[in-house]
Amino acid sequence: MPENCNACERSETASEALSERGARLTDLRRDVLQTLHHSPKPVGAYELFDQLKEAGKASAPPAVYRVLDFLVEQGLAHKLQSLSAYTACKSTPHAHEAFFRICRECGQVTETAVPASLKDVAAQDEFIAEHLVVEALGLCRECQESTL
Ligand SMILES: [Zn+2]
Ligand SMILES: [Zn+2]
Ligand SMILES: [Zn+2]
After folding, report:
1. Which of 34, 48, 56, 79 has the fewest C-beta atoms lying within 10 Å of its C-beta?
2. Same-domain check for residues 113 and 141
3. Which residues lie near ion ligand 2 (Cβ < 5 Å)?
4. Closest CA to 67 of 76, 54, 55
5. DSSP assignment of 52-72
6. Alpha carbon of 7 to ligand 1 centroid (Å)
7. Which residue range forms the structural domain that includes residue 52?
8. Does a structural domain hold residue 1?
9. pTM score, two decimals?
C-alpha cells in the first residue's frame, strides 16, 4: 500500500471512529471500508463481494450486506438508492443525510449537505421524514467535455 494514500488515510480515520465508538473493528468491516474508499465509483454489494473474493478475502454475501448496513448506520458509508450501490462517506463520520450528485458516465459522486429548505418541505403537513433521499443523476464537467 502506498504510504500517503488519501483513500487509505480516510479509511483509517473511519476505522478509528468505529473503535472510538466502541464498535468492533472486524477484518471484514476494515476490508469493506478500504474497498469503498479506494473505489473511484459507487459499488454494488455483489461487486464488492467479488472484489473482496478476488483479493483473497473470503466472505459470504450476507456478511457483506450486514457490514454495509452497519457502515451506513454508522454514517461511514452511504447507499445510493438510484444505483443500489454504496459509497464511502467523505464528510463527518456520523449518521447524516446528504445530497448526492452522481455522474452517469464516470460514476463520480459528490456529497454535499441537504439544504435546510428541502428538509422544511419534507416536514410539511407534520410529515415525519425518516429518510431523505436526494440524488441528482447527470454528467460531471469532465464528462461533458469528453462527450462534446
Ligand atoms: Zn490506499
Ligand atoms: Zn456522508
Ligand atoms: Zn463524469
Report:
1. 56
2. yes
3. 89, 91, 98
4. 76
5. HHHTT----HHHHHHHHHHHH
6. 5
7. 6-88
8. no
9. 0.88
